[in-house]
Specification:
Blueprint: H1 2-10, H2 27-39, H3 42-50, H4 54-57, E1 62-63, H5 75-87, H6 90-96, H7 98-118, H8 122-125, E2 129-130, H9 131-134, E3 143-146, E4 152-159, H10 172-180, E5 185-191, E6 198-202
Parallel strand pairs: 1-6, 4-5
Antiparallel strand pairs: 2-3, 3-4, 5-6
Length: 222
């Protein structure tokens, strides 16, 4: 059972409570899980339904320290989990899961408003905007919030049901905005979302925290 938990962790899925992952599983186990998911699409819908409403959990969200080389698991475990994530495009699956992404953004939206209210900035709390919901994608961030001093907080939210080191996609436009507004831009990473959301923040330059790998190219006839 712990081998299943390890494979699920690599696939960006919640692991089974009470079972510590063991990392001596074969790639065939991960393939079997992916076949099962393809045959039971409603299972992931059930996970979405189990996700907490943003407003109810906003103030209780745990925001911790971002992953670093220092707090990394043993190299052989990390390498195996990354190999599974690459082969089955875990980052792409999270990116295409609109319900998951929207739920994560909603949670952060309500958390930002709640934080400002608790800091005595009700005026700023009322001005927090869910930009991706109101204006659509393209701004390079999802939430427009503020620091207590009134400075912009441009928040790009990335959500997964997997662990804190689950890879994620980031667009060229998001990277450009992060570079242009590096003093104001934040990447807010939500993980273990279905079990009980946890989070950390990354600030530009992202290359200082993560390895950026080109995964697609635009093809044109010009």
């Amino acid at each position: 059972m712990s081998n299943i938990s390890a494979a699920a962790k690599g696939l960006g899925l919640p692991i089974i409570k009470g079972y510590q992952p063991r990392f001596n599983f074969q790639m065939s186990l991960a393939e079997a899980i992916m076949r099962w998911l393809a045959q039971h699409p409603l299972w992931e819908v059930a996970l979405k339904d189990a996700q907490p409403p943003g407003l109810a959990e906003a103030s209780a969200l745990f925001v911790g320290v971002a992953p670093t080389l220092r707090n990394a698991p043993p190299p052989e475990e990390t390498e195996m989990l990354q190999a599974v994530a690459r082969r089955f495009d875990v980052a792409g699956r999270d990116e295409r899961n609109r319900a998951l992404g929207k739920a994560g953004e909603e949670l952060v939206f309500h958390r930002e408003r709640s934080q400002l209210q608790h800091q005595g900035r009700e005026d700023l709390a009322k001005r927090v905007r869910w930009v991706s919901q109101e204006d659509g994608d393209g701004a390079g961030y999802d939430i427009l919030s503020f620091t207590p001093a009134g400075r912009d907080r441009l928040i790009e939210v990335k959500t997964t049901n997997g662990w804190e080191r689950t890879p994620f996609h980031i667009s060229r436009n998001e990277l450009d905005v992060a570079e242009a507004r590096k003093e104001d831009w934040y990447l807010f990473r939500l993980y273990e979302f279905a079990r009980g959301p946890r989070a950390f923040e990354l600030r530009p330059p992202l290359e200082a925290h993560v390895a950026l790998t080109a995964t697609s190219f635009q093809a044109s006839f010009g």
